[in-house]
Amino acid sequence: MVDPAEECDLGPDNTDDGACTSACLLAACGDGLVQAGVEQCDDAGANDGCSDTCTTEGCTWDVARGTFPIDVWTGQAVLGEIAFDGDCDLIVGGGEETANIYRVSKDSGSVSLVVQGLPHTLVSGITHRASDDRVYFAAGIPDHLYALDAQDQVESIMALEDPVLSLTVAPPGFGEFGDQLIAVAYGPSRLLAIDVDNHVITPFAQSASLLSVATFSGDGTLYVADWGSDRILTVTAEGVFTPFYTGVDAPDGLAIAPDGTRMFVAHLSGTGRIDQISIPGATLTPGVAFELGTGAAPTGIVVDGADHVLYEAPLADHAVIDVFAAP
Predict the structure, then answer these.
(1) Number of other CB atoms surrounding residue 280 within 10 Å
(2) In terms of residue numbers, what domain contains 69?
(3) How far apart are CA 105 and CA 266, in angstroms?
(4) Mean pLDDT over all residues of the chain?
(5) What is the pLDDT of residues 185-241, one digit of tens each?
(6) Keyword Signal: yes or no (predicted)?
(7) What DSSP character marks residue 1?
(8) Both 27 and 85 in a single domain?
(9) Residue 168 and residue 39 in one domain
(10) What are phi and psi of 218, to 5 degrees?
């Protein structure tokens, strides 16, 4: 029944990702809720990477101005995530026995060291949260969460009970976890929602198989790489896993194009390969081979608005950023 104060009412079919929200209002771009199948994103007008038509705006690199591969650091390579910061520069973590953070300039490809000397062994998950323009990263042994602001000042956020492999940011409408960090943890393998504002960690999905990396598409769907079972899953805020693609080989890197139509998966196929999988349809297109370690730590991958796939790869005793154009 549509009461005078309501715009719609579908009864039990009211949902915050549907045409009629749980507040009995018609879904609209700008309401902060991502309507499934209609909107790629909805930031309630915050202008933080979501356009005024509720489509995702991606960073775009002029890759012709840099010389690839770009040498980032020298040392024992332990792969971890990479992320664009608020200026679309690339943030890269250090290797084994160091917890450094590096920035690769989108304009020149130059590398600068922005964080060093943290009392940890490595940096694993890295993500940028647009709402406060800070890069969050997880450092391991001992396990801790930090934030890096736009002035390159580091803030200690909180100790982590579980080691973290991957970090991403939940969009509005992802259950009760909107704008919280979503972490892939291991020992046990599970997904955590980290409320960095109130220092609260909420486990919401547990897996019997080892998960390696998670990321959101523009429509608010959470995709997770199941390293232990050779597949890609979707996961709801209620912790329900659903297979999306089966048949990759130990996937440990995952990124989604800004337009939401394709994902890129790094996995062990021979020496390693980054393949493309269509969304929807789940059709795999073989991609680019590169050197890939045998661990479950994420291989850093990002995709810019011009379909350039940038990824981190270890070459003997150093790490590089390389790029290829998506087909």
Answers:
(1) 9
(2) 63-325
(3) 24
(4) 90
(5) 998 999 999 999 999 999 999 999 999 999 999 889 999 999 999 999 999 999 999
(6) yes
(7) -
(8) no
(9) no
(10) -65, -25
Cα angle 125, 126, 131; round to 5: 130
Tokens 């009392």 belong to residue: 119
The SS3 assignment for 13 reads helix
Q: pLDDT tens digits for 114-135?
A: 999 899 988 989 999 999 999 9
Q: What single DSSP character describes residue 326?
A: -
pLDDT number for residue 135: 97
Q: What domain count does the chain have?
A: 2
Note whether 38 and 83 are same-domain residues.
no
Give CA separation, 199 vs 93, 122, 248, 275, in Å.
23, 22, 36, 37
Q: Let me know whether 28 and 75 are in one domain.
A: no
Task: For residue 172, give the nearest of 89, 49, 279, 86 by alpha carbon.
Answer: 49
The residue type of 103 is R
Which DSSP state fits 47?
A: -
Residues 6+ apart with CB under 8 A from 57: 49, 50, 51, 258, 305
Q: Which of 60, 75, 103 represents a domain boundary (last residue)?
A: 60
Would you state the pLDDT for residue 196?
96
Report the distance separating Cα 61 and Cα 304, nearest Å: 7
CB-based contact 219:36 (threshold 8 Å):
yes
Q: Which of 60, 79, 109 is the last residue of a domain?
A: 60
Instruction: Give the bridge partners for 224, in sequence order.
Output: 214, 233
| Residues contacting residue 188 through CB under 8 Å, at least 6 positions apart | 162, 206
CA–CA separation, 103 and 90 (whole Å): 6
Q: Are residues 81 and 3 in the same domain?
A: no
124 shares a domain with 13:
no
Give the whole-angstrom CA distance, residue 52 versus residue 287: 33
Residues 73 and 55 in one domain: no
User: Which residues, 6+ apart, have CB-to-CB distance to 297 below 8 Å?
Assistant: 78, 79, 80, 124, 165, 212, 252
Query: Do the beta carbons of residue 164 and residue 214 sit within 8 Å?
Result: no
Does 78 share its domain with 148? yes
